[in-house]
Amino acid sequence: MIHAFSVDVEDWYQVSDFEEMVEFSAWGWYESRVIGNTERILGMLAEARVKATFFVLAWNAERHPALPRMIAAAGHEIATHGYAHRLAYDIGREAFRADVERSKKLLEDLTGREVLGYRAPSFSITARSLWAIDVLLDLGFRYDSSILPVRDQLYGIPQAHRFPYLIAGRTLPLGGAYLRVLPYAYTRWGFRRLEAASQPALIYLHPWELDPAHPRLRVRGKRGVSTHYLRLRSTEKKVRRLLAEFPFAPIERVLGLEPARNEECWSDRAVMARGDR
Predict the structure, then answer these.
(1) Predicted pLDDT of residue 158
(2) Closest CA to 45 of 67, 1, 77
(3) Taking the model in full, what pTM does it have?
């Protein structure tokens, strides 16, 4: 069983919890640490001889063109995390389309590779924004990794399927803050449960989660509490244990996709072919 390893390539100040105090127009004023932190992840993956999927926030790629090229040159899959890290259900269909289309073209122009996959900022394809799947299909994406089968104030479709099928990506609560805050035993248990069901897991993390020294902002978060700074020092050790204990590959390989356009789109939790919309 090969699992999927993924990274959301965003800088420390670009997270949704900081959205109210760090305006998009001010992003260029903040200290960027994304290149150094991404290099740390690339080094860990190289040591473990693992290839992964990097969902690159295209604003970062536009500001640092060497960033996606560095990732692609190391043999990893380039996917998109959008351009400006705006929640799909907040910005609406037309703005969402413009954001995603811009990000896809920019990354493809910089790397010379087709971008097959998308992950919405803060997993914001929910019951309020399922129209986003149609947009992704129209733009030629082959899989989406934006739907969590959980109940949360920011994201999730609780009744969504746990495993990938035609249309909808795969994301389980086994990465990000879940990896940092919960004991490693929980993550291992989740992987073993999925292996017992003959299903691959998908882990995700952000470069800033390996950087305990990144700047501090006072923030309550969109839920009234933020996990952004919790247990940052534990992330690297847990990731190294995962890489040593389980085999990983990019999402495109786990899904068996070829880098060419298709009329179908894979996603985590729900399936619709075009005729089923």
Answers:
(1) 47
(2) 77
(3) 0.82
